[in-house]
Amino acid sequence: MLSPEKPQTVQSIQPHLAMRQMIYGTRITQSIYAAAKLGIADLLKDGSKSCDELANAVGVKSKPLYRLLRALASVGVFAEEEQRHFTLTPLATYLVSDIPGSLRSLAIMNGDPQFHQPWGEILYSLQTGSNAFEHLYGMSLFEYHAQNSEAGKVFDEAMTSLSGIETALVAANYDFSTINKLVDVGGGQGLLMTSILKAYPAIQGILFELPAVTAGTKELLRAQGVLDRCEVVAGSFLESVPSGGDAYILKYILHNWDDEDAIAILKNCHRAMKENGKLLLIEHVIPPNNEPFDGKFLDLVMMLVLGGCERTTEEYRTLLEASGFQLTRIVPMPSSVSVIESVRV
């Protein structure tokens, strides 16, 4: 005869529910992606609208859209009111395109096939140690962007949305006052350089980027009123970097590359900088043990999509020593990134 089942305790059921939520996580990611791609939050920023109005505005069927928004409302992204009307919530506000700190482009990028599909090949990367993106697409991410401008635009907009907040934090929380000429290696559109030059009027800058990027960079620097203090130089940091700086800064560069390429980039900086020059890396520094940290999952993205990695303090120390630098200190920012400071030896 079967014994009656004992009721589960809170302690036993909570881990089970937590694991289920983790397993189902991709459903939320893809649902947010769809809402962001359709621009639903932009349509609601002036007030609630019916599902029919939203569906007509974005060119989809009303009933499937209702099912999507109902699901998102259940986790706090949008809120359903009477008669199938929806409105923004504090979470959904960050899917509005034109607000400071908007996460719409990041939501689109993470749900886009270029970033979503490599997760389906994670076993390939674990078994081979190779890049799942290149396995799927037969080319690197940046080669893919060169051939698919829309995917490249999604990626660039997501990176810009993240950089806006982090660059301001770096400029406000690291002391650049001892630097006369700062070289931003792989400086993109110039957000970081602009923040630093505005905060430190005595600094002169050199922004170094690929030729395809530099035209847009000059326009941003001019619009921000700092172009007269910043020279824009085109080239590839895998070959060389501009000489003459007393400090070189690299934001989110080394994590894109394996150790061999990272050392090559650092050695190019070492050759170019003045004696006793300073090197500043803005990266996630992986903490030890089981401490929760965004960078640990970002490290998996690097493994799957770019073939790079996030690194620990000791791993950065090893890279720097192999390139002729001595790690002096790591300065955590209020976000999850740190400024890794070293000097040329």
Tell me about this structure.
There is one protein chain. With 345 residues, the chain is an alpha/beta fold. It folds into two domains: 87 residues, Arc Repressor Mutant, subunit A (Orthogonal Bundle), CATH 1.10.10; 220 residues, 3-Layer(aba) Sandwich (Rossmann fold). The chain contains 17 helices and twelve strands. Helix 4 crosses helix 5. The radius of gyration is 23 Å and the shape is globular.
Q: What is the class of the largest domain in the CATH system?
A: Alpha Beta
Please identify the structural class as seen in this structure. Answer: alpha/beta
- Outline, from the CA principal axes? globular
CATH topology of the largest domain: Rossmann fold
Q: Give the number of domains.
A: 2
In angstroms, what is the radius of gyration? 23 Å
**Poorly predicted ranges:** 1-5
CATH architecture of the largest domain: 3-Layer(aba) Sandwich
Average per-residue pLDDT, rounded, comes to 93
Order of helices and strands: HHHEHHEEHHHHHHHEHEHEEHEEHEHEE
Largest beta-sheet characterization: 7 strands, mixed
Summarize the amount of helix as a percent range: 40-55%
In DSSP terms, counting alpha (H) and pi (I) runs of 4 or more, how many helices? 17
Ends apart, CA distance between termini: 78 Å
Count of beta strands: 12
